[in-house]
Amino acid sequence: MMTRRTGLPKYLTALALALALVACGAPATPPSGPYARFLKGDESVRKVSQEGPFTLLDIDYSTCCGYLFGAQLDYQRILYRDKVLVKKVERVEPLRGFGRPALVWPVPLGDGKLQVLSEHGGKAAFDTVDLGLYSHDGEDGYYHGYPIAPGVRYFPSNGGVLLSGFPLRVQKLPAGLDCCTGHIGQLAGTAPDGSAYAYADSRKEPGAILVVDADGTKREPVPLPVTPTTASAHDLSPHTPLLRWFQSSFAWTKNAQGKWNAAPVTAAPQGKGVAAEDVFLDVPAGYRRCFATDNASCEPGWRLLQAGELPTLFKDGYVPPYSYAPPQGMRAFGAPVTALIASRIGYGGTGYYLYVDASAEQVVATFTRRLRERKLPFVRVDECPRTEYGNPDCAAQLGERLGWRHKLDYSLEGALRWRPETGAMFVLPTIAVAIVAEEGGGTRVSTLARYPAPPPMRDN
């Protein structure tokens, strides 16, 4: 019987092994340059930076075996007064504005701990800082916190942590919201006496605000018009524009219960109609009006629904947080209002769901009439032609009526891909709305997405 062998011929295998042995046996390349005495073989300096008495070397290290079998590593080395202080470390950044030269880096496998190196009393001093956070938000150049004031860094999370010093102090902020209304937990402002904090749902495009006391007690969240923050050359960090936006847009006030709240500096304009309609028709102006019961700047007469109310609408007695009952006799889109809920939406943070006591056909007809009365352009997604897969294809209508000539950003496109089986779906210049019949009777008007005008698009 013949046995068929596969693989490299013996002489090729032997040749490859010989090459590997020769390469690995080659002498290391001796270091060169002004920092050669601080390097070992095959190390080279890619970058040098100085922070007070500390010299930070960014090092490239080529392991043995050359191009075919080797690997390229990079790490950092810290020199202090012409001596190696830290031989090998990663992700080191300057810690500036704290009154003394300092460097900071994460403790490997430290679950949120940071190592801070500074000079104190003419000597190098190490401090280990426990943020109490498994992870926090960051970006290139700001993985170790955002400077927000001299000697203060902010580590965003759901609330987050403030690091100040020297001496170094950690202050854990109360948690924001990370549930029903979406994530509202980016620090936007601090009350005059430091006993409350304002959080936004986005650092770059805030669209909701929430006030939380230091003990964790929360005010009701308030959705807002989505407003892009603007950067300045004088900003301490990319978080500064959010702080400036809040400071210029809101004033700290006390509510009827003596609790801190944030009130808009400029009063909301008089809407063109009922507030419960405006939030679905005229987003820039409509979202200047709000429904929170503990904020004097919001619409009067609304109240929070209690557990067990409206059993035909909310099953098993569960009422979602921030569900509101309207003032007596309130009507929207030609029908009695049952409830209004502030909630997380598919795109754009926080929006509203409105429940009215009328058929979906009636509400769709009135909604369409309101759009035409206000001369608002729109596209009825449920009336667009369908692709061979049954999905609506509205490209032509969106281009003709809304001027959207390119494909939408993938996230927004996904939020608008929903197809109601009953009722209708409307795409407006700054909002997408679905109107569908409820199983227990009545109709729900839902915010699917909020976006700027024009919305984010892609080139292909």
From TrEMBL:
The keyword Signal applies. PROSITE patterns: PROKAR_LIPOPROTEIN. It comes from the Bacteria. Residues 1-28 form the signal peptide. Keywords: Signal. This is Uncharacterized protein. It comes from [Empedobacter] haloabium.
